[in-house]
Amino acid sequence: MSGSTTSQFKENAVRQLADVDLRQALTKSKGHFTGGRQNAMDKLPEFDALRDQARDLKDHVLENLDFYLETYEQNVIASGGQVHWARTAKDAQDIVLDICRSVDATSVNKGKSMIGEECDINEALEANGIRAVETDLGEYIIQIRNERPSHIIAPAVHLTKAQVETSFRETHTHLDPDRILEEPPTLLEEARTVLRKKYFEAEVGITGANFLVAETGSSIIVTNEGNGDLSQLLPKVHIVLASIEKVVPTLEDASTFLRVLARSATGQDFSVYTTVSTGPRRSTDPDGPEQYHVILLDNGRTGMLGTEFHEMLRCIRCGACMNHCPVYQSVGGHAYGWVYPGPMGAVLSPSLLGVDEAGHLPNASTFCGRCEEVCPVRIPLPKLMRHWREREFERHLTPRAARTGIRLWAFFAQRPGLYQMATGLQMRLMGWMGRRKGRFSSVPLAKGWTKYRDLPAPEGKTFQQQWAGRK
Amino acid sequence: MANPRVALFVTCLVDLFRPSVGFATVKLLEDAGCAVEVPRQQTCCGQPAYNSGDKADTKAIARQVIEAFEGYDYTVAPSGSCAGMISKHYPALFADDPEWAERAQKLAERTHELVSFLTDVMGVEAVASQFDGAVTYHDSCSGLRELSIHDQPRRLLGSVEGLHLRELPDANVCCGFGGTFCVKYADISDRMVETKITQVIETGADTLLAGDLGCLMNMAGKLQREGAGIQVRHVAEVLAGMTDKPAIGEPSKD
């Protein structure tokens, strides 16, 4: 996949940590997301029971994925739509391009889609002379800045208002310099004015899908701006880009997920728009596309079924894990170097990119467990990250120094007598060396520690030595 | 059980860096009526290997711990992280090995973190100790999320004469320690602990407490590097009234 800098996670992180705008933006958004979720939970006593239901439903679907996908396909066709199966991101690109060419499209409107990001759809369109216009405000902002989303539901969360205003002034050259653009509503209004025209120019609209409903062949998107509706209703052709695990059995089941999705994501009871699309425009419909296409993307997901990473396929992309992750909140989404950041990305990216490329991500976690605590479908994210570490260790991908260190320590830890003798001597020595200050400001073999913090000196004799003496 | 035989899992960090926490633990357990023993064949719970993906060494260490600690009424550790490793992760580790799975499960059921053991198993409602000062308390992640330790330390601290507890905002957010994480991803860990100590300083407390030595050493080291002048101690030291030793990373007074 193009554009991944996941293997340079450490370098990316250092760069992001030094970005003062990022720090300001993240500090501002964090309380909004975590507080919002907490409030929404407090108002819904059955929230935890709903999470269990949502988990069980996804497990059921994954056990019967073939059945539900085929049922979904039949019902899309029955409602007049077309289904395209894409094994890889490249397949998905080719299918999108073929559809666009079939209607001589020169302009495509996009609703927000992480699968679109995964498949580099915008790049593929632009390379073929087709303009891609992002219509979600956050996506629009990062598109004019030539950036990638830093968050799966809040793509421009890494930016401050001032940065957005600067970008608008650079791009929207028609703007009167005196016009005030400081507040989000004025920025929104400006984006809306520019986008409104483009809605009527596009021949094709591409959206993602939060859910695909097998019983009706419908796709569902949730948005807060209404841009998704315009993107999919106004052009002649609507393409839904979705990965295979998005399928749910019935509309009733979709509603179970909808009850936990927005609450987990933004703390809203429901997002402003929940849009259900079924097939192209019927003769009695006031509006709608002439063609309705669904591209079902695999891109490595079937390879996760039945493995220790199976549970990751339950993910409904709410973003709660990254909103609550202290690592994500420190480095921001761009440090992760590819489409999916935060804890869910730390498990999913190695599955899709390979652990050789994305091996840092599952290691860059303290296993604090907050992601698992807030996950609406109860994915045990720390456990899955640990499984990646196990795979890396088995394949000798763990950095040699770390591996040697662990093996050496484990050798002693399995020989209590030797361990107690060696640590007893070492602690006596360190305790003696640190007796004046009580701590060390620099320790040659612990630079990772003492670069930023002092190391407390041991008291001297170990507990085991003292206990033996007490007896 | 009137006088249970309790095996102390002292934890590697307490054993090596701060034995006084071990002795405070022994005192609290004995005051609660336990007969405390310290199995000699203990080193570490195996988390450094477990979290590094080294499953073979983890299992070997876990088997050693199980052998050393089975046969007691309870196993108690002054750490939510190590107690969580034994009580939550050991059984999962041997899921495909029926003999060891059963032994791991038995030990898991009898293994507790110190403070929650005192309150939830031994029914301790108050401690007879004194500590003059304003303290704040950080909830270490494993204890909080794996073992639901939250109210227990606050309840016992509330019984310490002279102690005022000032709640720490975001007390449930990780301090950035994370075992080897803090060394492997030192730059990220630093931002996390910096955020944490900024909030600690803002409480105005003069002492910071927590139940896990790893987190405590991380926060103490950062507070000291920044010259914050806040003392850091394990919660057991305050509950046991054993605060005559210098705080973590502080020099002896003499």
Notes on the structure:
The complex is a heterodimer of chains A (471) and B (254). By secondary structure, chain A is of the alpha/beta class. Chain A has two domains: 6-302, Rossmann fold, CATH 3.40.50; 416-470, no CATH class. Chain A has helices at 9-17, 20-42, 47-63, 65-78, 89-102, 114-118, 121-127, 137-144, 161-171, 184-199, 227-233, 251-265, 320-323, 326-331, 342-353, 355-358, 360-363, 370-374, 381-394, 400-413, 416-433, 447-450, 463-470, and strands at 82-86, 107-110, 131-134, 204-207, 211-213, 218-223, 237-243, 247-248, 273-277, 291-297, 439-440, 455-456. The radius of gyration of chain A is 26 Å and the shape is globular. Chain B folds into two domains: 5-120, Rossmann fold; 125-239, 3-Layer(aba) Sandwich (Rossmann fold). Chain B is 49% helix and 14% strand. Chain B is built from 13 helices and eight strands. A four-stranded parallel beta sheet of chain B has the order 2-1-3-4, with helices on both faces. Chain B has a four-stranded parallel beta sheet with strand order 6-5-7-8, sandwiched between helices. The longest helix of chain B is centred in the C-terminal third of the chain and has 17 residues, at 186-202. The radius of gyration of chain B is 18 Å and the shape is globular. In chain B, 59% of the residues are buried. The model of chain B has no long low-confidence stretch (mean pLDDT 97). The chains are: A alpha/beta (471), B alpha/beta (254).
